[in-house]
Write a structure and sequence with these properties.
Elements (H helix, E strand, L loop, with lengths): L8 E2 L8 H17 L4 H8 L17 H24 L1 H20 L4 H29 L3 H32 L4 H4 L1 H15 L13 H24 L7 H18 L10 H4 L1 H31 L4 H6 L2 H21 L1 H19 L8 H26 L9 H38 L6 H37 L13 E2 L3
Helix pairs in contact: 1-5, 1-6, 1-8, 2-6, 3-4, 3-5, 3-9, 3-17, 4-5, 4-8, 5-6, 5-17, 6-14, 6-16, 9-10, 9-17, 12-16, 12-17, 12-18, 14-15, 14-16, 15-16, 15-18, 17-18
């Protein structure tokens, strides 16, 4: 490591006395960013009502953009956000990200039409992309002891997994008792609290040298992913044989190809390809993509199952996710204690297999299935496993990373989850729409009563949910296989990290 690559070096024998206060700050920010990917799900039907009823008259075909406008800009700009934090300063990036996220949330809460809401959600994603990689990098540089780092990653991993479920619970409560707008307003007090705690308790750290920001790389990556997701969403409406889908997908693939060409040639790439050539880190990122592909759609379709099939209220639907939230927390807490003993490979492999089993159990739901005997057991099994997986993946994503690449490596992990979630939700929605429509068409008979047709539509919807869950189970199984095959380190390697740059 060259002397001009870093500012000051903090060694493992000098722990930061304010490190646990810093973790509280980072935890608040991480929770805010992650739960925003799901908190709008339950509020969306209320935001879509006519204006005279307090909504924005959002057309059904545009529902998904309230979610994907956030996840796509968040995932698309994470790499640039990580690089900005490396050079500008991770604490400074963290603080700007918090302030910007709070402002974008206020803008969304005061939306007067759907375009303003989607724009605010996209702006949230941009500032979240500055905030999230800085948060993970700050954990890595603040906790130098391997056991303490495992506990810190346990908190981070738990919030990464449980944030989506907490968002659904909070969304239900806020929507029913206040307004759907409070699903956005709630971020402001959280950001103010985190800002007030971060200023005195978080140390600055950055890479010295002249910064080079890869804007063409950021634009090509983000536009490519948006184009693919839009193409997949068109397929769910018009079918895979329609010309409405494939041109967008082809353009998206071409833009991503351009992105990798740019990264291989620019002086300071947004995504240093060396991050992907290290076996352990590559396995962690690949596993995170597969988990995102499998998991995010579960929240969307279970919410429909609760509210449309079982007629749950917004609050009841949100609270129905409580076992999942508790399971994630318990899985992460236990894993943070046993990770130094058993190592990440065994834990993440078993955890991902449990997550796959939970999704597979959900794929056998029927319109009359009991929540207590069918849904809740699947949630518990899956969440305990995924809580363990998130901690193990977070602990290996920065394995042996160069100090100047810490922000980029952190960003890749978050990008993997968000982009996997965006693609997974779009693909599963396509599976749901096509399979449920085919089911209803195949079963329709002349002379059916109106109630029989309504029951048939519900059965078709549940059939579509089941197939979407099976896709999720397959993706989560692939996450287990990827981690086992690529992340070939044991517990003795976990504490071995390069020195990192920290400014007092």
């Amino acid at each position: 490591m060259s002397s001009d690559a870093v500012n000051n070096v903090v060694h493992a024998e000098v722990p930061d006395p304010r490190r646990w206060f810093a973790l509280v700050v980072i935890a608040i920010a991480q929770l805010m960013v992650v739960l925003d990917a799901s908190i709008v799900n339950i509020a969306l039907p209320h935001a879509s009502l006519p204006r005279v009823l307090g909504g924005l008259a959002i057309a059904p075909k545009n529902y998904q953009w309230a979610i994907t406008a956030y996840t796509l800009t968040f995932g698309g700009f994470l790499l640039l956000g990580g690089r900005v934090g490396d050079y500008m300063g991770r604490k400074k990036a963290f603080l700007i990200g918090l302030a910007g996220f709070a402002g974008a949330s206020l803008l969304g809460g005061f939306s007067v039409d759907q375009q303003m809401l989607f724009g605010a959600r996209a702006l949230q994603g941009v500032f979240g992309a500055l905030l999230a990689p800085a948060a993970l990098s700050l954990i890595s540089i603040t906790f130098t002891d391997s056991k303490e780092r495992a506990k810190a990653f346990g908190v981070y991993g738990a919030l990464s997994g449980v944030g989506a479920a907490i968002g659904l619970i909070a969304g239900g409560l806020l929507t029913q008792y206040l307004s759907w707008r409070w699903c956005l307003f709630v971020n402001t007090p959280m950001a103010i609290l985190a800002l007030s705690l971060a200023i005195p308790n978080v140390h600055e750290s950055k890479v010295e040298g002249h910064p080079h920001y890869d804007v063409p790389g950021a634009l090509s990556a983000t536009l490519g992913m948006v184009s693919i997701v839009f193409g997949v969403s068109q397929a769910s409406t018009y079918g895979w044989g329609s010309l409405s889908a494939w041109p967008y997908i082809a353009v998206g693939v071409a833009l991503l190809f351009v992105f990798f060409q740019i990264e291989s040639k620019v002086k300071s790439p947004l995504l240093p390809l060396r991050l992907l050539t290290e076996r352990v880190r590559a396995g962690s990122y690949l596993s995170q993509i597969f988990v995102g592909l499998g998991l995010f759609g579960m929240f969307l379709f279970l919410t429909f199952y609760f509210q449309d099939v079982h007629q749950y209220s917004a609050v009841k639907a949100g609270l129905a996710y409580m076992p999942f939230s508790v399971g994630i927390i318990l899985g992460a807490m236990v894993t943070s204690e046993i990770l130094p003993k058993f190592g990440p490979r065994l834990i993440a492999t078993v955890g991902s297999l449990m997550g796959a089993l939970g999704l597979l159990l959900l794929s056998f739901l029927a319109p009359y299935s009991s929540y207590v005997t069918r849904v809740m057991p699947a949630m518990i099994v899956g969440s305990l496993g995924l809580g363990a997986t998130f901690v193990a993946v977070a602990s290996t994503a920065l394995f042996n990373v160069r100090p100047e690449d810490a922000g980029a490596a952190s960003a890749v992990l978050n990008t993997a989850q968000q982009i996997g979630g965006s693609f997974g939700t779009a693909i599963q929605n396509t599976i749901y729409v096509t399979s449920s429509t085919s089911f209803v068409i195949a079963a329709l008979r002349p002379g059916l009563t109106r109630s029989a047709v309504a029951a048939l539509k519900i059965a078709g919807a549940v059939h579509g949910y089941d197939l979407a869950f099976r896709f999720g189970a397959l993706m989560t199984f692939l996450a287990a296989a990827s981690f086992y095959l690529f992340v070939n380190i044991d517990r003795h390697h976990l504490g071995k990290h390069d020195e990192v740059a920290v400014s007092p």
